[in-house]
Amino acid sequence: MSQWSDEPKKPGSEGEHDIDFLNGSSRRAESESRPPIDSETADYIARIEMEIEAEVKSKRSQGAFPPAFERRLKTIFEQLVPPGAGNSRRDFEALLRSSDRAAYFDIDVPIASQKPGVARLKKLLRMTQAWYLNYLAQQLNNFSTNLMRLLYVFDARVTKLEKSADSRAEVRSGGEFLKPCYPDMRETDGPVLQLMGQHTSRVLVADCGDGYLVARLRESGVDCYGIDSFGDDLEKPFAPHLDLRWQELREHFEEISNGALSGILLQGSIDLLPANEKLDLATEAGRTLCPSGVLAVLSIDPVFFDSSPDLAVQRDVAPGRPFAAETWQFVFSRLGFSSISVTKMGNSNLISGLKQGEHAKDSAARP
Amino acid sequence: MIPGSRAFRIDQILPSLAPRDAIGHHTLKLQELIRSIGIESEIYADEIKGELGGKAKPFREFARQKDSSSRYVIYQASTGSPIVRHLMNRLEPVVINFHNITPKEILGRWDSGVGIVVGGGIKQLSVLKDRAIGAISVSEYNRWCLKQEGITENSLVASPFIPLPQQMHDLARRHQSSSRWLFVGRLAPNKAQHDIVRAFSAYLEGWDPSARLTLVGSVSSQNYADSLHNLLDELDLKDKVTVTGPIDDLELEEQYRRATVFVCLSDHEGFGFPVIEALARSLPVVAFASSAIPETLGRAGILLSSKEPIHVAAAVSLVETNSALREQLISSSRKTLQRYSPEAARSENLDALSQLIPEMAAHL
């Protein structure tokens, strides 16, 4: 009867993720706690998923879905759930309020009854037990009041921390200012095309803007798509039928299987992220690349960033500053990349490296 | 206290016995099975719904009876219930028939009251384990869940009794000019109908603008149902998606007949009865590989590792357009249905019960 292993992997063990109910659509089935699937069924799933992915890719390359389509589907339900059911600030506040309301223990038990005399009996019981229950309730109310106060203080402190750590607004405004500092790809796309053009399988261009590079790479026969965290440029794509998506890079990486991509170009807002976020994204990029896949980072030269009078605001408000080419080389090396090189492009550096070693490619590669 | 060699009985206890309910059906069939081998058996339920009044007795009758050394109790566990507290104070040996309990993390955020009940149900399992002589789970997944609660001794698996039609329906009768998605299950957060709607929206956008979706099932969480209806409004899908509410067997049969694909994106299923019901009607199944679904469905349907809307929609399009794949699925589903036939359920449950209750040997 049993086709399952007797020693299933425990929930939360390596390779598993928490269930994100509202955004479950972006998560994978392995994330839920259950025994591992037997190998035959796993092979079956993998085989079918390859066909599904081919179908998805084909539709995307026809431009069947507007850039904001998935983003809208993903976020829309979150906005519709009743207060307290989601994960947003609004839900947190609703839960805090309802907890506060429930945090008072009342000893005045209702005594109404339809049976004759029972109400009087209940009243008598309530009166005789009041001294005892009141003693307990006072302690509970003291505890719950302090606990709620603690939660409010904790919330205030976390909110303050979040505010100081939140880099999104700064990165967003900073990114706009940074644009002119990058080389104009329409004039100097040669080095990028040369790097990525050797890969005919899946290539991701992050912060793709209007999709110029995506279009150029596709002209070269590269299976290329782009994502951008700001939707404005995506609305006016450089060419029709491009696979462009309005999505945050971090979220996108969460959806990609190990070894699914053969090339990744990181650029733009990554320059203004804090160092730890840059490193996280680079690590994720390494995970999603297949062996011999190429990772490239187009980054503003920090000397220029530190000295340009046009970037005074970014220097002051951005949570991070661009890494030096040497730092990127160090990061690439630590991530196990080989053939690391740096190409100067105007005020920017194009750092690239090849993924080394055998990385277990997921059976159903899904970018 | 172990019953002696004199005549003994096996009674079943459950919180609620309802018509057209998977656990209710299983309980009634199990009673039939036990009685068929000459053992007395009654069903006691805290709540008896609809036309099942004559099939079971109120639990309070059981509670009034004295402990009996010649009685075993099968507790049908699927939620928290005060029944368990009562069982803990009695001496009859208990067998847990486990149908799984939806995690409170999924339900509690929508309805804290429900969260408390299901959370209590899990806690009750760990209490009940000291009184139980063994457990019978309806899936390996459920057995694994019991193991997480420390119930490992005499933990067995036996297929549930599933109400299936005598024969698989003829696929040709269901020809439709456009895709018709169907899901059958309570409107509840763990059933994730909102994910089906999102995937359906992707299907309309990328594949078939004339497709239709029908969601069958009663409302289990009003908060969730309200949000689902709001989602349909926001996506402007009211004319493409039908939410039927509870329907009778004839109507349900009609829905199965009209549908071209059954889509299940549940985050948690202890077994997944409707998936098997769909297979029995030659309806191809596309399902998210969560909880017990991979085990229940096996290779008789498309199992998905992701619920991304476009991914699900692409899977449905494969089923709708690839006739060879469709045929293959239908063929595989015959094997799966054999695994869950009434004969298989009868044999497995009898085998499991006789392992836990030695006195049954004399009746086999």
Can you walk through the features of this model?
- The complex is a heterodimer of chains A (367) and B (364).
- By secondary structure, chain A is an alpha/beta fold.
- Chain A has two domains: 89-165; 171-355, Rossmann fold, CATH 3.40.50.150.
- Helix content of chain A is 46%, strand content 13%.
- Chain A has helices spanning 39-61, 69-80, 89-102, 118-165, 168-178, 185-188, 190-196, 212-219, 249-255, 275-288, 302-307, 312-317, 325-334, and strands at residues 203-206, 224-228, 244-246, 261-267, 289-300, 337-345, 348-355.
- Chain A has a seven-stranded mixed β-sheet, with helices on both faces.
- Chain A is elongated and about 95 Å long.
- The two termini of chain A are 37 Å apart.
- In chain A, 33% of the residues are buried.
- The radius of gyration of chain B is 21 Å and the shape is globular.
- In chain B, the strands form two sheets. Chain B has a seven-stranded parallel β-sheet, with helices on both faces.
- Chain B contains 14 helices and 13 strands.
- In chain B, helix 7 crosses helix 12.
- By secondary structure, chain B is an alpha/beta fold.
- Helix content of chain B is 42%, strand content 18%.
- Chain B has two domains: 9-161 and 341-363, Rossmann fold (3-Layer(aba) Sandwich); 171-339, Rossmann fold.
- The longest helix of chain B is centred in the first third of the chain and has 17 residues, at 112-128.
- The model of chain B is unreliable at 1-5 (pLDDT under 50).
- At the A-B interface, helix 1 and helix 2 of A face helix 6, helix 7, helix 8, strand 13 and helix 12 of B.
| Total individual domains of chain B | 2
Mean pLDDT of chain B: 90
Reported for the largest beta sheet of chain A, the result is:
7 strands, mixed
Q: Quick one: CATH superfamily of the largest domain in chain B?
A: Glycogen Phosphorylase B
Structural class of chain A: alpha/beta
| Principal-axis shape of chain A | elongated
Question: Distance between termini of chain B?
Answer: 23 Å
Tally of DSSP β-strands of chain A: 7
What can be said about the biggest beta sheet of chain B?
A: 7 strands, parallel
Largest interface: A-B, 51 and 55 residues
Low-confidence parts of chain A: 1-32, 359-364
Instruction: Describe the oligomeric state of these chains in a short phrase.
Output: heterodimer
Strand order of the largest sheet of chain A: 3-2-1-4-5-7-6
Structural class of chain B: alpha/beta
CATH fold-level assignment of the largest domain in chain B: Rossmann fold
Please tell me the overall pLDDT of chain A. Answer: 82
